[in-house]
Amino acid sequence: MKILVTGGTGFTGHHLVRRLVHDGHQVRSLDNQEGLFDKELKSLGVEIIYGSVTDKDAVERAMEGCEIVFHLAAAFRGVDLPKAVYWSVNVEGTRIVCNAAMNAGVKRLIYCSTEGVHGKVDITPADENAPINPKDYYEFSKYEGEKVVKEFKGNGLTTVILRPTAIYGPGDPGRFLMIFKQVKKGYFPMFGSGKITYHPVYIDNLVDAFMESMVSATAVGNAYLIGDEHYYSLIDLVTYVGKVMNKKFKFIYAPYWLLLWVSCACEWVCKPFGITPPLFKRRAEWYWENRGFSNKKAAQDLGYTPRIGIEEGLKRTYEWYVSNGYL
Ligand SMILES: NC(=O)c1ccc[n+]([C@@H]2O[C@H](COP(=O)([O-])OP(=O)(O)OC[C@H]3O[C@@H](n4cnc5c(N)ncnc54)[C@H](OP(=O)(O)O)[C@@H]3O)[C@@H](O)[C@H]2O)c1
């Protein structure tokens, strides 16, 4: 099939695009600028259109002839972006993508949301019925994006929503790289007890779920949490990282409030100068927000079974960081 992936040259997007190409699909990506993986994707025959999901003409051009759309593009990695940017890309951009998909007669649109729409969860494992409780404006905007997608359900567009947990794997430029780098130093600062839980999803497991959501008849109109089989305390997760690196390290404990205070101060000082703060509230909250979800609904409706476990996933990720000069 001819398939459009928005954000197809980003971390998650390029893995999905590679799988689609591998399975014989013809893939087009819409992305706002050149990234790390463009060259590789072009060599696989992927057509890349550069443009924003907020640009109706670019989106309509990218949509031409496509039967399936995976909508992954999002304002996500920028630190402390203005609320207007989150709104414009994650909400209005989603509306533009849905509208164009409906007008182009696309058979199915799969929207990549986030576990973050549930925010910090008190009881784990939480499922899709857990309260919607976004903790920051990014997460709020992703849920508003979900609402937009649901509006189109009534307009004849077939949709599925996935809410991945914390995605990691080869090519991940974010949180996991920081964990590996810190463990490499021989110590890991742990703010708070380290007993709160974190739910990773290895990229190949998530891509499996994307592929299943493209064909599952029962999935239509629904939203699914997608995570690895298990979630872990922060202490266990970082210990696994040390294990795959074969690196001895120590935890150094400090109160969470100290980190939160310093992060807020950093943001406050850096913001007026347009400088990216070294510490910020969203990063600090990693030590505090309990996250752990159930894959039960995805297993039932999509047939989703996470194939790659934590040690194998971290090993592959570590090898990528080493062979690409990140560690
Ligand atoms: N990573 C996680 O742990 C996680 C967890 C749950 C859900 N998600 C969701 O997963 C999706 C993919 O995230 P990711 O981790 O792969 O992030 P990513 O690497 O930043 O990928 C997002 C891609 O979208 C592009 N993009 C941003 N704004 C755009 C715009 N206005 N028009 C067109 N393209 C635009 C980005 O390009 P630039 O980099 O050039 O801006 C990037 O290539 C997002 O929808 C995110 O909300 C991520």
Task: Provide structural commentary.
Helix 5 links the parallel strand 5 (108-112) and strand 6. 43% of the residues lie in helices and 17% in strands. Helix 6 packs across helix 8 and helix 8 (234-245) packs across helix 12. It is built from twelve helices and 13 strands. The strands form four sheets. The chain has a seven-stranded parallel sheet, with helices on both faces. The protein has a domain at 2-172 and 200-228 and 292-307: NAD(P)-binding Rossmann-like Domain (Rossmann fold, 3-Layer(aba) Sandwich). The protein is of the alpha/beta class and 327 residues long. The radius of gyration is 19 Å and the shape is globular. The two termini are 38 Å apart.
pLDDT averaged over residues: 95
Instruction: Tell me the total number of β-strands.
Output: 13
* Element string (H = helix, E = strand): EHEHEHEHEHEEHEEEHEEHEHHHH
CATH class identity of the domain at 2-172 and 200-228 and 292-307: Alpha Beta
Strand content: 15-25%
Pick out the low-confidence regions: none
Tell me about the biggest sheet? 7 strands, parallel
Catalogue the ligands: NADP nicotinamide-adenine-dinucleotide phosphate
> CATH homologous superfamily of the domain at 2-172 and 200-228 and 292-307?
NAD(P)-binding Rossmann-like Domain
Estimated helix fraction: 40-55%
- Spatial gap, N to C terminus: 38 Å
- Indicate the CATH architecture of the domain at 2-172 and 200-228 and 292-307: 3-Layer(aba) Sandwich
What do we call the CATH topology of the domain at 2-172 and 200-228 and 292-307?
Rossmann fold
Strand adjacency order, main sheet: 3-2-1-4-5-6-11
Radius of gyration: 19 Å
Shape: globular
Sheet/helix structural class: alpha/beta
Number of helices: 12
